[in-house]
Design goal:
Tail specific protease domain-containing protein; about 475 residues; single chain
Length: about 475
């Protein structure tokens, strides 16, 4: 583990939002100071703060947000609801805003969550799983309003609050599919009962549930697969699934990333397998070294992975004294501070020329992606797409095609309510065409969005299409 720049303690980014009502109220002046502190911290340290919005637009947003503080005082939840969309508007999926853990624990102990898993489009929500005792809510039931608010009105509040790279929406909708009860509680409000208006004209009222009654891997909790890496053969077609590039995830399932990938590509070469399907769906990223190592197996010549890494002048100025034992001082070049290779760690080295792997795959490759392909997984997709090394099937990746802001991610506590702000310190630029897909992820060559019918009936449409294209069906 390498030490962080001594700005703040490191913390991991989490996707699940949290919020709770509290009787405490904070003066309007304190809330305005919080917004100024928040914006100041981001301006100083976040190199992607102005990646998708100009500084003048950010200032306009900041001023307009402060102008909405018209009440004498606000609760913690009221403050959170105002500031959360402001943070998400940066267009950075790694920039997080959380409420204090004790606040979350208090809420989780109470029944206030909708006991349904829902799949959304822009005007309605379809029940895919019913965790309530009301057996009339069958999978496939279409909900048009919840507690008097139409689905469209709910989405108008929720979507701007969910962080994603640039203008991406696939990640936002995927987040709602897996975490809607928590987001509803955070941004709309906790409720003891839910009145549902259905498309068939019925009205159904169901009681709320506690977090512990609903939470399970893949719904309100992160998935916990038994294997991070898996490989199978279907005739002359190979299927490689990579659920994460994170070294911690790979270790948890008792696997070794590089050894596993080496064995797979050596087997492909030895057996003459000419059709490969790589399933990256749900891969939220992780260790860059693993992502780059996998990517090298598709290149017969040296190639560029990242173009550069930038930091703010403030962060560049903190690389001094003890910190320089671990990191080299960023160099000012073309008006920005560029990160340089470390004498100790290789975690930021991948803007240099990358060499091919020993076993390079030259067959036909199909890659499955969705809105939860983020961070380093999105980098992999971008590089392979840019060099036309694969055919992409599924959804636009949630992470940016041109890069992201991540790396070291310290946490700032914002007084007076102790909101926790995660600030990524390094802005990554992928070595791709900068005129393509700005503000979006890697688009699929074959768009296959997730549908309620497919979920309910257990149909894997992207995989079926990949197998047909590979001639395995």
């Amino acid at each position: 583990m390498v030490p962080a720049i001594p700005l703040l303690p490191l913390a991991l980014f989490t996707l699940q939002p949290v919020a709770a009502d509290t009787p405490l109220r904070y003066p309007a002046a304190a809330v305005i100071r919080l917004i100024d502190t928040l914006s100041g911290k981001l301006d100083e340290s976040h190199p992607g703060y102005y990646r998708y919005r100009s500084k003048s637009r950010v200032q306009q947003y900041t001023d307009s947000l402060k102008a909405t503080i018209t009440a004498d005082s606000l609760t913690t939840l009221e403050i959170y609801r105002k500031v959360k969309p402001f943070v998400s508007a940066i267009g950075c999926l790694h920039t997080g805003l959380q409420l204090p853990p004790a606040y979350v624990s208090q809420l989780n102990s109470q029944p206030n969550l909708l006991p349904l898993q829902l799949l959304f489009d822009d005007r309605q929500a379809t029940v895919t799983t019913n965790y309530s005792a009301d057996s009339s809510l069958l999978p496939g039931a279409v909900i048009t309003a919840i507690n008097g608010k139409s689905i469209r009105d709910l989405l108008a509040v929720l979507l701007p609050a969910i962080p994603a790279d640039g203008y991406n929406l696939t990640m936002k909708y995927k987040t709602l599919y897996h975490q809607f009860p928590s987001w509803y509680r955070s941004m709309i409000g906790p409720a003891g009962t839910f009145t549902l208006t259905l498309s068939d004209g019925r009205t159904v009222i169901i009681p709320a549930a506690r977090f512990e009654e609903l939470a399970r891997p893949g719904f309100l909790e992160e998935p916990s697969p038994r294997e991070t890496l898996s490989f199978t053969l279907k005739g002359k077609t190979a299927i490689l699934t990579i659920r994460s590039f994170a070294a911690s995830d790979v270790k948890r399932t008792g696997q070794h990333f590089r050894k596993y990938i080496d064995r797979v590509f050596l087997q492909l070469q030895q057996q003459g397998i000419r059709q490969l399907i790589v399933d990256l769906r749900g891969n939220t990223g992780g260790t860059d070294g693993n992502a780059v190592y996998f990517t090298r197996h598709f290149f017969g010549q040296p190639f560029r992975y990242w173009d550069r890494i930038e930091v703010t002048p403030t962060i560049a100025g903190q690389i001094k004294g003890f910190t320089r034992l671990f990191y080299r001082k960023p160099a000012l070049r073309e008006g920005t501070y560029r990160w340089k290779k470390s004498p100790v760690t290789r975690e930021f080295d991948y803007y240099t020329l990358q060499q091919p792997a020993r076993s390079v795959y030259n067959g036909k490759t199909y890659i499955l992606t969705d809105g939860f392909c983020m961070s380093s997984c999105a980098d992999v997709a971008a590089i392979l797409s840019f060099h036309r090394k694969a055919v992409f099937i599924g959804e636009e990746t949630g992470g940016g095609y041109q890069g992201n802001t991540s790396g070291m991610m310290p946490v700032v506590e914002l007084p007076p309510v102790s909101l926790l702000l995660t600030v990524p310190l390094q802005q990554y630029y992928n070595a791709v065409d900068t005129t393509l897909h700005r503000g979006h992820g890697t688009p699929p060559d074959y768009a296959v969005p997730l549908t309620a019918n497919a979920v309910i009936n257990g149909i894997d449409q992207p995989m079926e299409l990949a197998l047909r294209l590979a001639g395995a069906m």
